[in-house]
Amino acid sequence: MGFAKIRYNTGEEIFRIKIEDTHGSKMEEWVIMSRDFPKWVNMISSRFGFRMGKERIKTDLDWTR
Fold it and tell me: Is residue 39 a contact partner of residue 30, using CB atoms and an 8 Å limit?
């Protein structure tokens, strides 16, 4: 899974992402183009065991359904 090369002055946003552990130590640091952000989210969610998907938000009237 490759990401696009970082290109400045193209009008596309560049994301700098830093992941820290519970003690504040740097675990990973990423610099990606905005078009690669969805691929990055999928990769990180599988690496750290996050569930991606729509979770239904509970409301006060859920009992009516």
Answer: no
Q: Tens digits of per-residue pLDDT, 3-17?
A: 999 999 999 999 999
- Tell me, yes or no, if the pTM score tops 0.85: no
- Say how far apart CA 65 and CA 56 lie, in whole Å: 13
Tokens of 9: 């002055």
Q: Residue 39 pairs with which residues in a beta bridge? A: none
Each as own residue / partner, the long-range contacts of residues 34-39 (CB below 8 Å, 24 or more positions apart, any chain) are 35/4, 36/3, 36/4, 39/1, 39/3
